[in-house]
Design a protein that fits this description.
The chain is mostly helical. It is about 80% helix and about 0% strand.
Length: about 200
């Protein structure tokens, strides 16, 4: 996979992870209520759920390319429209997307279980991956390239939430995130709209 293509994928995955939402609020709650270890447990289990969805999406899209190229093209354009809709929604969120996370009594096992459930129980996550990864999967993509896509999504997701859990356990990162949630939303919106326009212009890479 070319470095420029991978950087595009990594940037979108990073913005998706950083966007204020239920996953980030979950990690914050467990960190506030149980300390660093439950927060990290929630982060890592959530990343495993994300990796599973990414794996299923990559293999499913690969099969569609080979067997149903017209259907894959329709999914690609539909994905572009979905990414554009997410971008507009993020831009319109403004300060409404600010985080409100409260502490809860928790344990490492509970945090890990809920982290996985939040990832696997979020239907929007699989839609996001179908929309996103349809722009990167190609008919001749090697096993290594597919693995890179899955690992990129999983490592960036887990890395960001682990960073949040570790930082929050001994700093004022929550107020910082709350104050800048609207800027994160705006940056995410611009990036998603740019990707949607790039798809309309032609294949990425």
């Amino acid at each position: 996979m070319p470095l420029s293509l991978w950087m595009s994928l990594a940037a979108i995955c990073a913005m998706g992870a950083m966007s204020p939402g239920p996953s980030l609020a979950l990690v914050l709650r467990h960190t506030l209520g149980g300390g660093r270890l439950p927060g990290v447990a929630a982060a890592l289990s959530h990343a495993l759920g994300v990796g599973l969805y990414a794996l299923l999406t990559v293999w499913g899209l690969g099969a569609l390319i080979v067997r149903f190229p017209l259907l894959f093209q329709a999914i690609t354009w539909g994905g572009a429209a979905y990414l554009a809709w997410l971008g507009i929604k993020a831009l319109r969120a403004g300060r409404a997307g600010a985080l409100r996370a409260e502490a809860m009594t928790t344990s490492g096992s509970q945090a890990a279980r809920e982290g996985m459930l939040v990832a696997l129980g979020n239907p929007k996550l699989i839609l996001f991956f179908v929309a996103l990864l349809s722009q990167f999967v190609t008919p001749d993509m090697s096993l290594a390239a597919r693995a890179i896509i899955v690992l990129t999504a999983m490592i960036i997701d887990g890395g960001w939430y682990v960073l949040v859990a570790v930082s929050l356990s001994h700093s004022r990162v929550l107020p910082w995130l709350q104050a800048r949630a609207h800027w994160i939303n705006r940056a995410t919106g611009v990036l998603l709209l740019a990707l949607a326009l790039r798809v309309v212009a032609g294949p990425i890479g």
